[in-house]
């Protein structure tokens, strides 16, 4: 028997349900091979950027090395996934296909079609819950409905037993020969017609595990409550690109968070762990709502917000993208995004509020820009974060409007983060940096823009438009 494990956003051998099950079902006598398909429709969607592809290639390189070390191989194909799967399945006489499930509407449809096509040619297909600890359809309100609000979701979610991680396999058996198969070697970034000009964090499974251990075995998780909101501090795990590409399994992450309870010395330490777990639950909340309300992927959840009179001024949008709005905390955050492919969560909320409530620009433009730039860009979390910020989602109350200057004073009190990303503002006093109103002659001298809008005027305007939509 020959089993294929179709990897998509689970680029690891540890804690991998599809791989473990392939070995359990055919591994003893049969062969287990990994497969990754480069789908041109995803690569050429106009949103995917070279940085993300480059990060992914690093993950795939390590995954292939791991497969080879264990005695098998990870195969690569380029093309439409269903046609590719069927042609490989026939070429190697595949008996089984295993994969881990996704929650995105596009992926669910593709997987349903792939399952049917493979079953028609006699392949046994099985899929597994992997992306979250609790499957999106395994949790519901007392009335049996999907959740629309986070807090009751969390209460139920946290009370549910969580699955244990699955150990990485020790050995695999592959094919005797890989000649004449419809597969390609791992392509380079250039061969995929991308370039990347940012310095990437380390990719792959071993880097993910090292990050997780450093965060959970050290003080990171214990100090999370006090540190997580300060973008100048290394107060969060930075695991998000790894969770996006599945270089670490969510059961392994949960196991480490639970094990950190042994290190707790104070209520504050314990709160650190709980709040981090709540963030993991936010991730699953957004997966849950996307799964149940796939229309979220293409528009506002609240009908009133679908016709909101956004003012999509292209110049202002460009200034926001480039970090040239004249609001230092916003600009610092956008430069961090553009230069590293990651942005601190506090800053994501600040820039999203600024785009939607100060510039009154449609959140979907921001959502798309984030997807382009973020290494962790993930439909469920990104859409959830944007709809939360735009007050267009399921839980819009209270109406959230962030004042960039007070956010900066509270979360970057020394202006350290601002100066890290806006070196042209060196020499200004902290008070000037945080005032939200840098003196015009200082802006001019430093070639830094004056504020492109007035926060107070714009927030009044937004509130009026919001009232007019009879939303409250
Ligand atoms: P930590 O604080 O260490 O948290 C651990 C993990 O929990 C994260 O890696 C992430 O997987 C998950 N998580 C944490 N906060 C959230 C949250 N609010 N919503 C969902 N999951 C969360 N996260 C993404 O992974 N991809 C995105 O595309 C994305 N877009 C966002 C857009 C906006 C407008 C906002 C406000 C938030 C967005 N987030 C997104 C959520 C959050 O900002 C990031 O997950 C977090 O900053 C990643 O850093 P970290 O790994 O250090 O997180």
From TrEMBL:
GO BP terms, alphabetized: nucleobase-containing compound metabolic process; response to light stimulus; response to stress
Domain Photolyase/cryptochrome alpha/beta: 1-133
Entry note: cofactor: Binds 1 FAD per subunit.
Site (Electron transfer via tryptophanyl radical) residue list: 310, 363, 386
Top-level taxon of the source organism: Bacteria
Xref: Pfam families: DNA_photolyase (PF00875), FAD_binding_7 (PF03441)
Molecular-function annotations in GO: deoxyribodipyrimidine photo-lyase activity; DNA binding; FAD binding
Broad enzyme group: lyase
Record: residues binding FAD: 224, 236-240, 276, 279-286, 376-378
EC number: 4.1.99.3
Stored InterPro entries: Crypto/Photolyase_FAD-like_sf (IPR036134), Crypto/Photolyase_N_sf (IPR036155), Cryptochr/Photolyase_FAD-bd (IPR005101), Cryptochrome/DNA_photolyase_1 (IPR002081), DNA_photolyase_1_CS_C (IPR018394), DNA_photolyase_N (IPR006050), Rossmann-like_a/b/a_fold (IPR014729)
Keywords, alphabetical: Chromophore, FAD, Flavoprotein, Lyase
Entry keyword annotation includes Lyase: yes
Cofactor: FAD
Family, as annotated: Belongs to the DNA photolyase family.
PANTHER family associated with the record: CRYPTOCHROME, CRYPTOCHROME CIRCADIAN CLOCK 5 ISOFORM X1
Protein name as annotated: Deoxyribodipyrimidine photo-lyase
